[in-house]
């Protein structure tokens, strides 16, 4: 039954993955590439390979037919508009989503799809020929009727002699896209300085046999070369600051394999290319920095047979060690120099010159770790910012934010007075940098610019206290001054709690705070007494309602005028 066949096929694939060696690739250190075909990067489609590299037909179509190839980046491999059986590939072997890859749809007959010359080699030297290959067919789409890629790597002399071959056998499908390195290494015979490298697709075209390739390389292979800062276990990046001085000790270990090796330390400054460091030709060297110039410095040890010292294509190198000299941060904190704001307002602080920022205090800031926080302090505050560039020349600058309190005005409350009297308006003000205080209108005021002027208006009037600050606007407060022409005394009121005429109201008495008011019944008994008459009489005696009837009052204004007397009728 077909399900059993499919399961058996998958079992064979799993066993193949488990027992098959992926490649005969170099187990030591590698040299700079003699051939390095990365296919570049850019928009789709990529350009065709140079003449003679492939005998397949180039097509700009991202879905090449049998016997064709194209150069594409991951965008065209993600459309799934070619074959639903293909993997969704999101990047090239190095992780670059825009990196080109060679997409091959194999010929119906086995064919050579990559050929290139490697020249300037050294005899009796080991070289590796390799490529990264990805089987485009998904594991779910594979089966006994699906053809899987099968590649042969071969190295030949220019006369046609086969120097080395390696066959990948079936490159098994995988559940997810998987790049694997395949290749072969060999030793150049005496007198051989130029070779031809080839890749042949052994499987037939048709249903399957779709693959992509990347980073095809041919380079020298040699002993393992290990390096470190001080010891081989310390390989992490080293950091220092521009303008400072330091000394780094580089140490190395070279495995067996060379008869009479030479050693040469090399430097690569800001990816400008590898150059020899004069005099640095031992396993342990010192690299001094004096008044260091900013940049990235990479160091590696180049190793080869002594006679190949001047032949870079014949030598191998260690992995690079990196020293980063960081630029001194130049801190600029700007808030219109030292800023002034009004209470409740905000301003934006500004700093530059580093990678990391820390503002103190954090009070009043929306963020304390960004270059441009918004500050809303409630009081005058000096903010400091520490600017760091990976710990190199941390610097601090400060900026003062002056907070001015907005002006407030209080006229002292409404007042009542009798015509001919004088009163003092009890104004108060608060705020910073008050520039002007004045009352309007000026009618009846002895000094309109005083906070507490003397007022003697002849008519009721509303005064406004105005306060002006230098930077934070104005504030006002009104005072209603009621001026009574005469004292009007009602002769009847009805304290029955119906909300109408429940009190014996004599408004003008508020203008005479020292005045006294006394009320007697018809028997001469005092039933009410007050000073200043702040609260109108409600017709009670000892908190008990008095009966309906006539009562007699005596009012002394205490201003050397005759007392006022008369009667008042309580109606229930």
Q: In terms of topology, how is this protein built?
A:
Blueprint lengths: L1 H18 L9 E2 L4 E3 L19 E2 L9 E5 L1 H4 L23 E5 L5 E8 L7 E10 L14 E8 L4 E9 L9 E8 L7 E7 L8 E13 L2 E5 L8 E4 L4 E9 L6 E9 L4 E3 L7 E6 L5 E11 L10 E2 L3 E6 L12 E4 L4 E2 L7 E5 L13 E2 L5 E8 L6 E10 L3 E3 L4 E4 L4 E2 L3 E3 L3 E7 L13 E2 L5 E9 L4 E11 L7 E2 L22 E5 L5 E6 L8 E2 L2 E2 L3 E8 L7 E7 L2
Parallel strand pairs: 3-4, 14-21, 22-27, 29-35, 36-42
Antiparallel strand pairs: 1-12, 2-12, 4-5, 5-12, 6-11, 7-10, 7-12, 8-9, 8-11, 13-15, 15-18, 16-17, 16-19, 19-20, 19-21, 23-25, 24-26, 26-27, 28-31, 30-33, 32-34, 34-35, 37-38, 37-41, 39-40, 41-42
List the keywords.
six-stranded mixed beta sheet, disordered N terminus, Immunoglobulin-like, mainly beta, elongated, Jelly Rolls, 572 residues, eight-stranded mixed beta sheet
Could you please describe the fold and organization of this structure?
With 572 residues, this protein is mainly beta. The chain folds into 5 domains: 2-222, Jelly Rolls; 225-326, Sandwich (Immunoglobulin-like), CATH 2.60.40.10; 339-402, Immunoglobulin-like (Sandwich); 408-484, Immunoglobulin-like; 492-570, Immunoglobulin-like (Sandwich). Helices cover 4% and strands 42% of the residues. The strands form 11 sheets. Strands 1, 2, 3, 4, 5, 7, 10 and 12 form an 8-stranded mixed β-sheet that branches. Strands 14, 16, 17, 19, 20 and 21 form a 6-stranded mixed β-sheet that branches. The longest helix has 18 residues, at 2-19. It is elongated. Mean pLDDT is 89; it is low at 1-22.
